[in-house]
Amino acid sequence: MGVKSALTIAGTDPSGGAGIQADLKTFQEREVYGMSVITSVVAQNTLGVEQVEHLPISFIEKQFDSVWNDIKPNAVKTGMIATIDMMELIAEKLKGSNVPYIIDPVMVAKSGHSLMEEESRSVIRNMLIPLSTVVTPNVPEAEFLVGFSINTQEDAEKAAKVIVEQLGAGAVVVKGGHLEGDAKDVLYDGREFTYFTSERLNTHHTHGTGCTFSAVITAELAKGRSVKQAVKTGKAYITDAIRYSLELGNGNGPTNQWGYRLQGLPNQEG
Ligand SMILES: Nc1ncnc2c1ncn2[C@@H]1O[C@H](COP(=O)(O)OP(=O)(O)OP(=O)(O)O)[C@@H](O)[C@H]1O
Ligand SMILES: Cc1ncc(COP(=O)(O)O)c(N)n1
């Protein structure tokens, strides 16, 4: 079996816990060859975001073409894509590509800083979500996508149905990190709901959880796993990454990319 590769299109985190850096670490841990296209350079750390600089569209396109025309990935994910121009470019590039496409619809960093321009939010919904294999919104992101509030599991199921059946996602995981009680994520693939539940871990070291979770799903789809298997592995991986999260920095520390090794979650059987 040849080596599998995955591409992340996202913003950076120089402190290494979220964005491109988290994605590449995750791909490596899941034994998939990782590649990246940078959309925005972000000065941030565990305390928050200081400054954001968007790269010119023509240069984002150059990066994309450099990778895609040489090493076509087995799966691609997008994280922070802030502007309408970036979304239009990605839609044009991915349309008809047949490569599994995972969207982590990053809108606001945990620290509260906006990572997506207000006017782009409806463009991700209308232009990119119909191209997706899986979308992984947290509760506030899912609320924006469907236009109603989510307070219960029933609301999360209702939102998941709308995102697949009306917005055109291939599948969706509405993440329960922002709800009360257990951390319960619901997958809807257009046929059935599957729940992935873990105990809620009592830590504020959760910088980059969403990036890491969606990067595992991307890596597993690159290896040819089913969406359900990929999400199952993503949930197991992120739970241990949070359980053993790292007390680094002075704010919300990063997750532990080696956490799953302590539990023995295998790479190849995932
Ligand atoms: N305290 C916690 N204990 C256990 N699991 C958690 C906890 N917080 C989040 N998770 C899990 O982590 C994964 C990511 O969910 P979360 O809601 O944190 O994403 P997110 O808000 O998009 O993250 P980010 O802000 O990094 O983009 C989900 O599987 C969720 O259930
Ligand atoms: C480039 C980039 N992408 C995504 C996040 C979200 O992660 P979090 O919500 O944990 O800050 C981030 N902070 N930076």
UniProtKB/TrEMBL annotation:
Pfam families: Phos_pyr_kin. GO terms for biological process: thiamine biosynthetic process. Pathway: Cofactor biosynthesis; thiamine diphosphate biosynthesis; 4-amino-2-methyl-5-diphosphomethylpyrimidine from 5-amino-1-(5-phospho-D-ribosyl)imidazole: step 2/3; Cofactor biosynthesis; thiamine diphosphate biosynthesis; 4-amino-2-methyl-5-diphosphomethylpyrimidine from 5-amino-1-(5-phospho-D-ribosyl)imidazole: step 3/3. InterPro entries: HMP/HMP-P_kinase_dom, PM/HMP-P_kinase-1, Ribokinase-like. Its EC number is 2.7.1.49, 2.7.4.7. It catalyses: 4-amino-5-hydroxymethyl-2-methylpyrimidine + ATP = 4-amino-2-methyl-5-(phosphooxymethyl)pyrimidine + ADP + H(+); 4-amino-2-methyl-5-(phosphooxymethyl)pyrimidine + ATP = 4-amino-2-methyl-5-(diphosphooxymethyl)pyrimidine + ADP. CDD domains: HMPP_kinase (cd01169). Keywords: ATP-binding, Kinase, Nucleotide-binding, Thiamine biosynthesis, Transferase. GO terms for cellular component: cytosol. Residues 13-256 form the Pyridoxamine kinase/Phosphomethylpyrimidine kinase domain. It comes from the Bacteria. It is an enzyme of class 2 (transferase). GO terms for molecular function: ATP binding; hydroxymethylpyrimidine kinase activity; phosphomethylpyrimidine kinase activity. The keyword ATP-binding applies. Belongs to the ThiD family. This is Hydroxymethylpyrimidine/phosphomethylpyrimidine kinase. It comes from Gracilibacillus oryzae. The lineage of its organism: Bacteria, Bacillati, Bacillota, Bacilli, Bacillales. The gene is thiD.
